[in-house]
Amino acid sequence: MISAFLKRRWWLTQNRILTTISSALIIPIILYTTIVSVLNNVIVHSIDEIPYEHWAFPGLIMIIATIGLFPLLYRDFFDLRIHRHILQPITLAPVTKIEIVFGIVITAIIESLSFVIIGMAVLIILMPNPLVWYQYLIILIYVVLYNGVIANVFVTIGLVTDRVTMYMFAVLTFLMFILFGSGILVEFEFYPSSLGSIFANLPTSVLMHGLRSLLFFQRIDWFSLIYPLLIAVAWFGVNGLLFKYKSKQ
Q1: Which residues on neighbouring strands pair with residue 51, listed in sequence order?
Q2: How far apart are CA 59 and CA 185, in angstroms?
């Protein structure tokens, strides 16, 4: 099943390969010039005395992963669904709805990783970075977990909304929340204590904290891996049921 979805994804990617590569090269440059070059003069060091450029590097990678993931899931779970194009015939395949959701999401995550790898290479050129080669592989593992959570949110929004305005409002609200509520760009110590403690317990926040602990302090936080994984797996099941309901099968 996964191989069939991978072939479908590759066929779709071939039709826009130049656009994909161009976007993957431009996005990290925009993120660096609009975010890091500005905040680096405001937040010179993190609470743990890590230079902000180094501290923000994993967060920028997660932003790139999200940007690479969003249009793929928008197309499959919102655009094609409301216009009753390709997604409807896929539901007639002899597989469960959870398997369909899982197959589409996994192939979207794999394509998103190509964005991440290219973006990572560009950021390494633009930013001084103290990481060694195997730490970039660790980041990719966390990107997969991060995208597993984020993808499920995009799928849910795509399935529960039927109007473009409501869909875009929900997605933009969610992206703003993730950007500033998951410790991607700003530490939770800058928030009011009550708000910071709530944000710090989100699966994406726990994941980011665990990634930075491993990269900068060589401390493995297994909870930061297991917690987002359990959330993603459970959410796959919920989205499978929701997809079955929306497809009326």
Answers
A1: 45
A2: 6
